[in-house]
Amino acid sequence: MNTFTTVDAVNEYRNALSGQVGCVPTMGAIHEGHVALVEQALMENDHVVVTLFVNPKQFNDPADLAGYPRRDVEDIDLLNQTGVSAVFMPTVEVMYAPDDSYLVNESCESLDRCGSARPGHFSGVLTVVMKLLNIIKPHRAYFGEKDYQQLELIRGMVTAFFMPVEVVGVPTMRAPDGLALSSRNALLGSSERALAPRLFQYLNSDDSDYLVKDQLEKAGFTVDYVQTHKNRRYGAVFLGQGSRQVRLIDNVRLTP
What is the pTM of this model? Predict the structure, then answer.
């Protein structure tokens, strides 16, 4: 497995490849959900490049950025075992040099749900994803459906800017108790981890958004939002207190 930290090195590697190339963009702290993305990419492409980059532009809370789990050594070891072709792990200076004033914005779908709760978040997401796809030049890029609003926005960006890449959504991987796998789960204490699966349970009920929000609050969650959009219910909550608050998101498809 090749590991690269500069754009020039990736470009040289990519230009020498033949066949289909898949890309799995991640922020590291690799878990089984990421592995599922990698496995699908490996089945559908001749080469797979995974990116590891904690993108500061998509964090609106400095404490959230500082506390985001980072496990570069463990991630490299795990990815090496999956059989991916290469890992690209740039620094912030590489990704945002020489000028970080150019951003990708979307003016409709990004304004509610996570977009409303986290100002600037999706601008940061779209900007870094466009940069990574322009660097890797994959035929296909793989994203989990847990971040479904993000997936829709990336698909829209690729269409709007005529980018020659297929965006592949992969179903959400869950723990046996229903909790959607996420790098942030590692930040949960034992009591919080025991409570967390109720997010999926309540979102998946037949109750209204209002009742689901009320149930989550009574259970001990701090609710950011519960919102149904295009036959899919989205929820974002916090568990923990003060600086130890962990933000969890999930979504479920509802029967029309």
Answer: 0.96
